[in-house]
Amino acid sequence: MINQVKHKLILLTIFLITGCNSLPFNSSDDGDSESKEVCASKPPTELVLKDVTEITLKSSLAKIEEGRINSRETIGYRFQGKSGQKLQFELTEGVCIWIIDPSDEIFEQSTLTQDGNYLVQLAAKEGKQVNYSLRMGIDIKSSSPKTTSTPSPVASTKPTPSPSPTPSPSPTPSPKNELSKQEALDIVQGWYDAKPDIFGRSYQGSKVKKYATGKFYYEKVEKCDNGVCGGSVGWLKHYGCHYTYDFSDIKRVVSFSTNNSSATLIINVRERLELHGPRSAGCGKGANTYQKNVTYWLEKEGTTWKINEYKVGS
Questions:
Q1: Domain 2-138 carries which CATH code?
Q2: pTM given for the model
Q3: Which of 59, 99, 163, 218 has the most CB atoms in a 10 Å sphere around its CB?
Q4: Rounded CA gap, 207 and 198, in Å?
Q5: What confidence tens digit (pLDDT) does each residue in 76-113 have?
Q6: Residue 286 pLDDT more than 70?
Q7: What CATH number was assigned to the domain covering residues 181-312?
Q8: Distance from the Cα of residue 203 to its chain's centroid
Q9: Are 305 and 183 in contact (CB under 8 A)?
Q10: Measured between alpha carbons, how far is 233 from 197 in angstroms, rounded to an integer?
Q11: pLDDT (tens digit per residue) in 292-302
């Protein structure tokens, strides 16, 4: 499909923004003013964390992806950057790009100003549907002149025997007892995915055990209150209430810390849910949408990490 369309690629280096709401690399270089399509100052849609592709940028302009894109959808990538690094990219004409820094602000400079995760979002210009190609690199070095393949001699008065080749070490994973940020995120994402079954009409409380331990488990399926036992699930079942969820989107990871026995994950969540059932039980009040930070504390149960407690709000 890509070969059917001629791509006009423009090498774009991010410059300082000057008196314009749109990023400078989103402006058209076409001299015909009637053919210029304007990129909005922000992406047309929000991305959820699970829909963002993790990428690692190298010190060369490397292909990230190519495909088909329109103006009503946003494609997202995320990379780790460090303050002081310089970013370059090459993108098909007719496609808008926005870069969001770790503070959730539109990034408008040629040099990264913070350490952390940077989000790249793409969308076609208004009313367009095009094939696109994205190439990116960081701290790209200029090509050196070609030289002969003979290595420079080592300054030494006598020959030094070459050491036996040593394999390059593999990246060191997290210590076995420690929980990585991605593992913690997977546990919490699994919990959100299971909530419609646990607190829905089927009351599948048995699924709680997979994600919960300690206080969190007790409150969901064991706690007794005013003669009603079974925790939150038991209360819903007793009064004939249940939840439905239109969406439960983890927007971003705010912070993460861990040690050998516990971990803390703070995420920003946007959720829309509705409690159905008799009003006499306090249910049936209509749908509610919120976006807040939620803190999850995780601990090990045997050899398995689970959620021990949580708190909504900072």
A1: 2.60.120.380
A2: 0.53
A3: 99
A4: 7
A5: 899 999 999 999 989 988 899 989 888 888 887 778 99
A6: yes
A7: 3.10.450
A8: 31
A9: yes
A10: 10
A11: 899 999 999 99
